[in-house]
Amino acid sequence: MTQPSYPGQQHTEYNLPRNEPVEQARLEEQAKGLMQLMHGKIVHAPLDNPKKLLDVGCGTGIICRHLAQQYPSATIYGVDISPVPATSEKPENVEYIVGDIKQLADATDERVKDGDMDYIYQRLLICGMTDWPGYVRQMTKLLRSGGYMEIHDYAEIMYQCSSYPQDGDKIISTEEKWLRIKHRGAAQLGLDLHIGPHAEQYMKDAGLVDVQVTKYASPFGTWLAGQRPETEVIGEHNAKLLGKVFAETVLPGITRGLGVDKEEMRTLQEECRQSLAAGEGKYWVFYVTTGRKV
Fold first, then answer.
1. Is the whole-model pTM more than 0.85?
2. Rounded to whole angstroms, how far apart are CA atoms 47 and 257?
3. Could you report the per-residue pLDDT of 137-169, keeping only the tens digit for each?
4. Which residues contact 226 (CB under 8 A, 6 or more apart)?
5. 75 phi and psi angles, rounded to 5 deg
6. CA angle, corner 109, sides to 106 and 110, nearest 5?
């Protein structure tokens, strides 16, 4: 069955399942795992009585609901290329907008006009956002003076530690053929699979100041939960669910322009599943980057 199309969707790069209950449930579980990983702290920027907040790529609306509760006097706008599923009650101070944020901003939509936002949040747009430098500049224009931008995302770099994650741990992802090919496809599409650590420079280049970066180790499996209980839920999610969605949807989508034949793709998909399975000492890094507009 053909999936419905929504405003801006045909022009937007997106390489995860759309509008599927199983994927929506995965996104909710992932969000809860990341919230636990960050000790319940979603907003890292030092906001002071914000009035207008924007969540770009709001997905199931879980972050919008959190922001609405944390800032009950603010208006929260959630933008996504697909409708937010009606599985949870929408708070009164939340408004969902279906569309591509780049097109909405260019069209001077009154809800997302220049110099009007106190806070712009985006998380896990790694497989969908093209031209990150241009996007960050565009979102910076939407911020008021003193407003904050916050980006939560990964770098698709896998590390191996002996017992506890630390700087200097061995990078093991360079040995993975499926990931090297995925990076080639991403470059062709204009995606940045290292957006996590790159967000800092993109913000600085856009003129944001007081740029801060916080890093969280996100394991594959529950091997770290004994030392750091906050990693248990996201570790279980990573090991049980990411291999399937990456192999079946993300990898074929991102590499679609490289001419990979069916037999090779099946081999790469199996390598992807094995690579993203639980493994002692295996993790990647989740980056939180904040910056303020002068």
1. yes
2. 42
3. 999 999 999 999 999 999 999 999 999 999 999
4. none
5. -100, 130
6. 140
**89-147 pLDDT per residue, tens:** 899 999 999 999 999 998 878 899 999 999 999 999 999 999 999 999 999 999 999 99
Q: Report the alpha-carbon distance of residue 111 to residue 13 in Å, rounded.
A: 23
The residue among 129, 131, 134, 95 whose CA lies nearest residue 112 is 95
DSSP per-residue string spanning 137-155: HHHHHHEEEEEEEEEEEE-
Q: CA 8 to CA 99: how far, in whole Å?
A: 5
Give CA–CA dist 292/83, Å, rounded. 30
Tell me phi and psi for residue 32, to 5 degrees: -65, -40
Given a contact cutoff of 8 angstroms between Cβ atoms, the answer to whether 65 and 93 are in contact is: no
What sections of the chain are H helices per DSSP?
Answer: 21-37, 62-70, 101-106, 132-142, 177-189, 195-205, 232-237, 243-245, 251-254, 262-275
